[in-house]
TrEMBL record, chain A:
Lineage, uppermost ranks: Bacteria, Pseudomonadati, Pseudomonadota, Alphaproteobacteria, Hyphomicrobiales
Keyword set includes Oxidoreductase: yes
Protein name per its UniProtKB record: Ring-hydroxylating dioxygenase subunit beta
Family statement: Belongs to the bacterial ring-hydroxylating dioxygenase beta subunit family.
Record organism: Chelatococcus reniformis
Keyword Ion transport: no
UniProt xrefs under InterPro entries: NTF2-like_dom_sf, Rng_hydr_dOase-bsu
Keywords on record: Dioxygenase, Oxidoreductase
Biological processes per GO annotation: 3-phenylpropionate catabolic process
Pfam families: Ring_hydroxyl_B
From TrEMBL, chain B:
Stated family: Belongs to the bacterial ring-hydroxylating dioxygenase alpha subunit family.
Name of the protein in its database record: Ring-hydroxylating oxygenase subunit alpha
TM spans (from-to): none
Rieske domain mapped to chain residues: 42-151
Length: 169, 418
């Protein structure tokens, strides 16, 4: 009896893991291919997009972050990219990222806390740049589909000078 | 002794309305700039509010050289070089902290945070040695103007007061925006690595010609009226304070509409606590004028840019690489304002900023362009026919004119040939 319950729990967990993984892979692809509208559509209305600086446990309400966008500022960021005159993305960065170490940290109600590591290769006019990040996501089930309510991108070198970061990280 | 005769004939590279591209890419020019500008004249290092408590320290720089800015055990500001005088090891590996002494990890020599050697490890090996011979190196001259700490590696030279000259008015104008007349830089710096010569940044900070084009995308999307400030119809002024200091003076625009806090895209009704604190501090009339005039847009040569809502420090690390350090201005006694200052600064500047990512794209293209052989010269004639003088005798021009750039190069030529 107990073994059967455990098997069901494991299957559910695996199912959730696959769902989360597929969502994150899709997000990565939309970023790599500059699919701006589809990427923006992944966000919930209260989404927060955060790329801290000078450490990983900073208070974004008190100290400077590279990005600390609420939902409306995410929209501005996307709209600027879509003008075609966001010079730092004209021409666009060529990107490929590898996402791994995907781990469901916790789940409560509709929300799932997830962590993953990403390595992003960027090629642009300046040259080639490799970015490495430890990401944290808060995903939310909305009408049976996952959405992104919070994404924190922890650049491993965020205490150092970094090059322009104008693609969607 | 150093031979100070220049390897380059700068008089042939800098003319009143054009400069030679080699000034941006030649490594020899960069080496000479280090000795003639960065390691000689006054350079902005940091702000006293970054080391508020005794024994606080923060790692800053003068050009490529790291400098420890310390609120030392005596209560003074010291600028120490981060190098153990024993065998030259890097002394402190942290960007900030609070400590009364620094111990070198290599052979455990310990120094007071005011620079003196306190003790050696295994002191028996140093019989007869004079500890006072082994103090940390220091920046010999420190000048502080209203909390802004400058250092000069020259034992003597002009006073900071004389050096800042007319640009002091911009620092005064800035601090007027605090009900307590003080700045607190507490938000931490973003560091933006830039593959371009530092002078492209120096020249661009008060360039009113580029924003309509470089920043057109964000002006359009954010539907802000800021774009008009940089149009042919603008009444804003460009100004050359002399000594390489330049300004983009927005006050004529703000005074035209005379609305308090319009400079910050808001109004007194939306920041009632701030408006009340300003009125209490300065009286109604003066407070109103300060809130109309807003915060300055001034580039203090060679590396301090007061950019209305944020502060930039330019740090050249190589002929083709510069770090732009930037933080939100924070005014003492103005929490409402400060929160918005942080939010707007995070949106607009730094590596991901709506504005600075595009400026920096231009800097890097500027640099790649400089390396292309023909034409060899860049031209700075814009507005020459309408350059004038203000009541203080400073050169001024239209918002989009190249008065600041001509002023910067005039000063640069002086430094490189004297
Ligand atoms: Fe700009």
């Amino acid at each position: 009896m107990n073994a059967q319950i455990d098997a069901a729990a494991v299957a559910a967990r695996e199912g959730l893991h696959r769902l989360v993984e597929q969502f994150l892979f899709k997000e990565a692809r939309l970023q790599d291919t500059h699919a701006y509208d589809e990427w923006e559509a992944l966000w919930t209305d209260d989404g927060i997009y955060w790329v801290p600086a000078n450490g990983h446990d900073t208070d974004p309400e008190r100290t400077m972050s590279f990005i600390y966008d609420n939902r409306s500022r995410i929209g501005i960021r996307i709209d600027q990219l879509k003008t075609g005159r966001r010079h730092t993305q004209t021409p666009r960065s060529e990107l490929a990222r590898v996402l791994s170490n995907i781990e469901i940290v916790s789940q409560s109600g509709d929300e799932i806390e997830v962590r993953a590591n990403a390595v992003v290769f960027e090629d642009n006019l300046r040259g080639e740049t490799v970015w490495a990040t430890r990401n944290e996501y808060r995903l939310r089930l909305v009408d049976g589909a996952l959405k992104m309510a919070r994404k924190k991108v922890g650049l491993v070198n965020n205490h150092k000078p970094i090059f322009t970061l104008s693609f969607l990280v | 002794m150093n031979d100070m005769s220049p390897v380059r004939d700068y008089r042939r590279l800098i003319e009143p309305t054009r400069v030679h591209s080699a000034l941006y890419y030649d490594p020899q020019v960069f080496q000479e700039e280090l000795s003639r500008i960065w390691y000689r004249g006054w350079v902005y290092v940091g702000h006293v509010s970054e080391v508020p408590n005794r024994n606080d320290y923060v790692t800053k720089s003068i050009g490529p050289t790291p400098v420890l800015m310390v609120h030392d055990r005596r209560g003074d500001i010291s600028l120490l070089l981060n190098k153990c005088p024993h065998r030259g090891n890097q002394l402190c590996a942290y960007s900030q902290g609070n400590r009364t002494s620094f111990t070198c990890p290599y052979h455990s020599w310990t120094f007071a945070n005011s620079g003196e050697l306190i003790g050696y490890a295994y002191a028996d090996g140093y019989q007869g040695a004079d500890k006072s011979q082994f103090a940390l190196g220091r920046v010999p001259r420190i000048g502080i103007y209203r909390g802004f700490v400058f250092g000069s590696f020259a034992e003597d030279g002009p006073s900071l007061d004389d050096y800042l000259g007319g640009a002091k008015a911009s620092i005064d104008q800035l601090l007027d925006n605090s009900p307590e007349g003080e700045l607190e830089l507490t938000a931490g710096f973003l560091q933006h690595r830039t593959k371009a010569n530092w002078k492209f940044m120096l020249e661009n900070e008060t360039d009113g010609y580029h924003p309509a084009f470089v920043h057109g995308s964000i002006f359009q999307v954010a539907e802000s009226g800021i774009g008009n400030l940089y149009s042919p119809a603008s009444t804003a002024l460009t100004r050359d304070f002399g000594n390489g200091h330049t300004e983009f003076d927005l006050r004529p625009e703000w005074r035209r509409s005379a609305k308090p806090l319009q400079w910050f895209g808001t109004d007194a009704e939306r920041l009632p606590g701030y408006a009340a604190a300003m009125t209490a501090a300065y009286g109604a009339e003066r407070a109103r004028q300060i809130m109309i005039d807003g915060s300055p847009h001034t580039m203090i040569f060679p590396n301090l840019f007061i950019a209305e809502i944020q502060l930039f420090v330019l740090q050249p690390v190589a002929v083709d690489e510069t770090i732009q350090h930037v933080t939100a201005l924070q005014f003492k006694g103005a929490p409402e304002l400060n929160r918005r200052l942080r939010q707007q600064t995070m949106g607009s500047v730094g590596p991901a900023g709506f504005l600075l990512a595009d400026d920096t794209e231009m800097y890097e293209r500027n640099h790649r362009g400089a390396l292309i052989r023909d034409p060899e010269w860049v031209t700075l004639i814009r507005g020459l026919h309408r350059e004038g003088r203000d009541a203080d005798g400073f050169r001024i021009g239209h918002a989009t004119d190249e008065v600041p750039q001509r002023g910067i190069w005039r000063h640069y030529l002086d430094l490189m040939t004297s």
